[in-house]
Design goal:
The structure holds two protein chains of two kinds. By secondary structure, chain A is an alpha+beta fold. Chain A has helices at 2-12, 14-48, 62-70, 82-89, 116-121, 148-154, 200-206, 223-228, 249-257, 269-310, 314-322, 327-368, 379-395, 397-410; strands at 54-58, 80-81, 94-106, 109-114, 123-124, 128-129, 132-135, 143-146, 161-162, 179-185, 195-199, 210-211, 214-215, 235-236, 238-243, 264-267. Chain B is an alpha/beta fold. The chains are: A alpha+beta, B alpha/beta. The A-B interface holds A 1-2, 4-5, 8-9, 11-12, 315-316, 318-327, 329, 409, 411-413, 415 and B 15-16, 47-48, 50-51, 54, 56-57, 76-77, 80-81, 83-85, 89, 91, 94-101, 104, 107-109, 111-113, 142, 144, 158, 170.
Amino acid sequence: MILRLAFASLLARALTVGMTVLAIALSVALFLGVEKVRTGARASFADTISGTDLIVGARSGSVQLLLYSVFRIGNATNNVTWQSYQDIAARPEVDWIVPISLGDSHRQFRVMGTTGAFFEHYRYRGGRALEIAQGQGLGDLYDAVIGAEVAAALGYAVGDPIVVSHGLASFTDHGDQPFRVAGIVARTGTPVDRTVIVSLEAIEAIHVDWRSGAQRPGPATPVERIREMDLTPSAVTAALVGTQSRLQVFGLQRWINQYPEEPLLAVLPGVALQELWQIVGVAETALIGVSAMVVVTALLGMMAMIFSSLNERRREMAIWRAMGARPATILGLLVLEAALMAALGAGLGLALLYAGLVIAQPLVDSAFGLWLPIAPPTLREAAVLALVIAAAALTSLLPALRAYRLSLADGMMVRT
Amino acid sequence: MTEPALALEALRFRWPGRGSFGLSVPGFTMAAGERVLLLGESGSGKSTLLSLICGIVTAGSGRVRVGGQDLAALGAGARDRFRAERVGVIFQQFNLLPYASVADNILLPLRFAPERRARAARGEARELCAALALPERVLGSKAGRLSVGQQQRVAVARALIGQPPLIVADEPTSALDAATQDSFLGLMFDRLEATGASLLMVSHDERLGTRFDRVVRLAEIARIEAPA
């Protein structure tokens, strides 16, 4: 009965209670949303590469190497010569090696030169292999396999022509050597979805008439002639390496890092990711702190609302007392009302969060490549909600104690 | 010998804080089943006296006995429970929780009084409503939607449910017009007749006196003590 009356009391003040519940709901949705994005980003990053033991590139920072080679964020400061690549590939510890050549783009998407080994060995989300959803893999020199997001955003289908642009923000196209969409990769939730994949030879082919980043003056080399040329690259941007045995990883890493012919860097993807988390950890903490403060603000708003309603509810308290309610019952009633408001706010916040996720999931995926999973609340999220309700009950103790004192002082009449 | 329904002995009380007034009652007794009208003007200490009788506040000295029980001998929690068990209260107006249903309002005191709850017959709320000329459909209505006259009758039903031996009423007719007052009192007295409960009703309207066993002026039994 007390619970029913507490609900009825809240309903009777629907407007102010509604606004308070909404404020709590929005703050809870924000807090959980930040948490979802944080964990989603981590999971998305961690899921992007799986089964690769080492990433090799020119010597720079391990995080930078990870970002440009796997996530297509930022650029390499230098390349790895083909000879070095061959030397690494020839090491007995190496089971497989996939070259990656970056630098060109198509519209807003990166173009990546690689070999068929990429489709064979690249794994994501706990070992899942890439699947060609439509068409086929790289066959002809001018074949391109595009990611699901590229196809969706640009409306491409198998057989459509593609012209690659030189560089990442260039107005110069490799229009003399158009590609053809040979296949579309099934959605992975990784940067592959936003990548145009061509063969390593194709990257060489479109740069036949280019020297030092500029197009050579004069007529372009005919495509037929290019097809007959040796298109072995002189350098690649990075390489993904799988070893025969996990035990050999550190030995191979040391060998590459001490490679005398050119300065190289080999990093373990997991270790580089940990470094990345350490860098972004401060920002994450700040973001969580800010969203927690928003929750605290909403709870303080609720406390102010309860305080302001106390005076007009003194008559009601006198009725409760006259009926035999103890002052502690009055205190408990107000705490119960606060807990109910917080529970309603938490529930509504959760609903807002999931509605927001349904709307934002494809947008965030296409804009940032982050796949925010829509999964039932985790234990941690449930704990957060319980904490919000407990904090609300605790916050309401202040006005509830005042109501307790008022109910003792007022007796059967409201003395003002 | 039957215990008096109410006995006040050398009672002295002062509200806490500077500038608060006090009340003293040398002696007053009400027999079991007696209906007493206590006449008093505004500010004569009526509500304070009722708070003392209900055990919501406790006297600085003297005794309040309800049905022979000295309220000062009970702890705060036991006093609240005793009030819920033994006293039905009717205010002058704004008697009900407006957001709660009529049924919940009537049953509210039973929530705090297990013995009274056990005494209350199933369907008593409905019977009381019928006896007080309240249509059955109002039981599910929000109390705040009823007319003032209906609300006062619901307050009477709430005070009577579970048959507490003492009913305390603080000017229950003050918000009613003359015709409604008469029918309201008629219905209330009919129910009191049926339960045998004692009634202490405070009012400033002397015309109501004919219905009561005894009319007492508050000024005759109590003295207001000016702020210290």
